[in-house]
User: What shape does this take?
Amino acid sequence: MRKLKIAVIIVLLVALTGVGVFLIVGPGMIEKSMNKVVAHPPYDISPDARKKHDGLIIMDWHSDSLLWNRNLLKRADYGHMDIPRLAEGNIAIQMFTVVTKSPKGQNYESNSADSDRITSLAIAQLWPPATWSSLYERALHQSRRLHSFASQAPERLKIIRTQNDFITALQMRSKTNSNGSDKLVLGLLGIEGCHCLEGKLENVQGLYDAGYRMISLHHFFDNELGGSLHGISHDGLNEFGRQVVRQLERHEIIIDVAHSAPEVVDDVLEIAERPVVVSHTGVHGACRSKRNLSDEQMQRIAAKGGLICIGYWKGAVCDIRPERIVKTLRYAIALVGEDHVALGSDFDGSTTTAFDTSELAVLTQEMMDDGFSDSQIAKVMGGNSVRFLSSYLPN
Ligand SMILES: [Zn+2]
Assistant: This one.
């Protein structure tokens, strides 16, 4: 009997140690396997390109880094992005997008809404129990994470909620002469998919209060608003979807149509009064991926004042080498005009890229090599985004 007791205790201890080890190293291991940078020698950046890059105001419209439990104030040697690497890469403005649900076997063709991998990730990362069953709570939790980083290091990260915040922080950033790792980063909060409203229109207010200033209607599956680009129904916006679009516009929250079905995009373009963005995408004519909306829809989004934000991963641009991303940027400029093209990396969004955010000068170098004009480089890297936010953030 005593031996049995000892055996049971040993088994329990081993199991507990296993769980403990998994909770400590598991999430980091998962992230390492999901967000890779392909091995490469350091990129050659000429002094001219470096100088031009350091003089730009740069914005990235999409990064999912808040999903992973890393302390973003510390430079990590894995993943794509954190505050030190943003400062090093001279990114002035970063949209931090949050994921609240992701189906098993996620793919671009067809996904049902029945399964969810974020539940086990939330538990493994010891997020508050309220997030284990609520998508809305997952959005609030990730906003709290960014706010906690900003309050720990206000001189390195400032969260932007209004036009006034935006202009003041940009001025502050331009006055500090610091180079490299201590440059101020302006952070905005965005969401992937309105399923985190949990079917309640009034939750738009809660997300606004939590600081969210851009929300995409969909992610990988159909939701309460209508069809996803990767869903099953191919529905347009239903009545609830129309109400959400109107509510987002009332709050001056930027609508992102990335991941929405083309039918939904048509409906949004018909009823929206403000321009919309595609926060992370490629362009179909340059990369025939199911992930990319048609060229014709991109033109209509731009004609209404919207932005097409080009990503750096294979599903968007087909070939992730910097020179190929620049070819996509050139194609996008020819398609929608140089005032409507911007950057949307999808860093840390379960993507593999050819560079992390600290190495972004390679894009400036490649654009110079490809014969982009100074003004085209400035607009694509951030000028268009600054103009957009200056008009469409709340007052
Ligand atoms: Zn996405």
About this structure: Residues 192, 258-259, 280, 346, 349 surround zinc ion (CB under 6 Å). Residues 59 and 386 are 8 Å apart (CA to CA).
